[in-house]
Amino acid sequence: KLVGFDYIQSDNVYIGGLKNGKKEGRGVHLNGSNIYEGEFKSNKREGRGSLALENGDIYEGSFFDNHFYG
Q1: For residues 46 and 62, what is the distance between their CA atoms, to the nearest angstrom?
Q2: Half-sphere exposure of 32 (CA within 13 A, CB side)
Q3: Would the pLDDT of 29 be above 70?
Q4: If you count Cβ atoms within 10 Å of the first and of the last residue's Cβ in the chain, which end, N or C, has fewer?
Q5: Rounded CA gap, 37 and 65, in Å?
């Protein structure tokens, strides 16, 4: 595994683990005003994490296939 920095666009930044060019392991993804900090698997939010949305909502817990789970 590599630790990387992926500058996708001016408002889309990822800092964290990479595997085969995809987000993998722990990382932080800033997408506009939304911030996700947690685990990734095959480029998707998967595992434990925290998602803070632009509107102020915060989801903490498990994520599966890029969605909050539970």
Answers
A1: 7
A2: 6
A3: yes
A4: C
A5: 15
